Amino acid sequence: MNLIFLKIGGALITKRKPYTLNRKKIQEIAKEIVNLRKKYKFRLLIGNGAGSFAHVSAKKFKTKEGYINEKSKIGHCIVEDDASTLNRILVKELIKAGEKAISVQPSAFIFCSKRKIKSFFLEPIKNYLKNDLVPVVFGDVISDEKLGCTILSTEEIFKLLAKFLKPKKIILMSDVEGVYDSRGKIIPEISKKNFSKIQKFLKGANKIDVTGGMAHKVKEAMEMAKGKIEVFIIGGKKGNLEKCLKNKKVGTRIIYS
C-alpha cells in the first residue's frame, strides 16, 4: 500500500487568538489534498494539531498531568471537546472539497497507563485505509488507568500507527518551513549522526503548546524514522506538499541512519 501520513499543524489551521480558525487555509489544504490524491493515487492518513483550540484549555486545566484537582474531570471533558471540535471542522472541509475523510477519535481506540500506551485497537483504521477512506486522527485526551487521563500528541499517535501501518512517508506540515539553525537557515537533513548537534537549535513549546513544540516534533520524528520511514517537516505553503511527495527538496528530512 502506497500510504502517506500527513500531520496538519494546529498553528497552520488556527490563529493565535483562542478558538479562532484559519478557515481559508483549511480550505486551501483540503483542495490541495483532493487534487494530489487524484493525481498520484496514494492512500492517506491525516492527523491534525490542536492549535488555539485544545492547547488553551489543556494548559488551563493541566490535563496532561491527569486528575490533579477537583476541576480536572470537567477539564478532561472540555479539552476533549475542543480537540474534537477542530478535528470535525477539518473533516467537514475535507468532505466539502470532495475527500472521503472520516474522523477517528484516538481516545476511543487507545488506553494508557502512566502516559504509556497500554492497549489499542486499529482494525477500523486498517479497514478504512483498505477501502481508500482517509482517517483523520488528532492529538487527544486519553483515558489513563493510573492518572485518570493524559494527553497524547498527534506525533505520539503517528508513532504508534506507523509501527503497524508502515507508511512510505510521514509529512509534518507546520507554520514554519522546516527546522532552523542558529542563523535562521533551514537544516536540510537530521539524522542519528547529527541529532545531538541539532538539539541545541530546537525550541520547546510556545506559550500555549502543551505538547512540546518543535523539540517534541523532532524527537518524535526521530523515533518514527527508526522504522526506516522518511519523515519530513515542511511549511504549509501551497505547493510544498506536492514537492515532498515528488521527493523534491523541501523543508527538513529526518532519517534514522
Characterization of this structure:
With 257 residues, this protein is α/β, with parallel strands linked by helices. It has a single domain (3-254), classed as Carbamate kinase. The chain contains nine helices and twelve strands. The protein has helices at 10-13, 23-40, 51-61, 72-97, 123-130, 154-165, 195-198, 213-225, 240-245; strands spanning 3-8, 43-48, 101-103, 110-113, 116-120, 134-138, 140-144, 148-152, 169-174, 189-190, 230-235, 252-254. The strands form three sheets. An eight-stranded mixed sheet has the order 3-6-2-1-9-11-12-10, with helices on both faces. Strand 4 (110-113) and strand 5 (116-120) form a beta hairpin. Helix 2 (23-40) crosses helix 4 and helix 3 (51-61) runs antiparallel to helix 4 (72-97). The protein is globular. The two termini are 24 Å apart. The model has no long low-confidence stretch (mean pLDDT 92).
Helix content: 25-40%
CATH class: Alpha Beta
Rg (C-alpha, Å): 17 Å
Strand content: 15-25%
Query: Which fold name is given in CATH as the topology?
Result: Carbamate kinase
What is the string of helix and strand elements?
Answer: EHHEHHEEEHEEEHEEHHEHE
Order of the strands making up the biggest sheet: 3-6-2-1-9-11-12-10
Please work out how many helical segments DSSP would assign: 9
Count of spatially separate domains: 1
Which secondary-structure class do the elements indicate?
Answer: alpha/beta
Unreliable spans are none
Mean pLDDT comes to 92
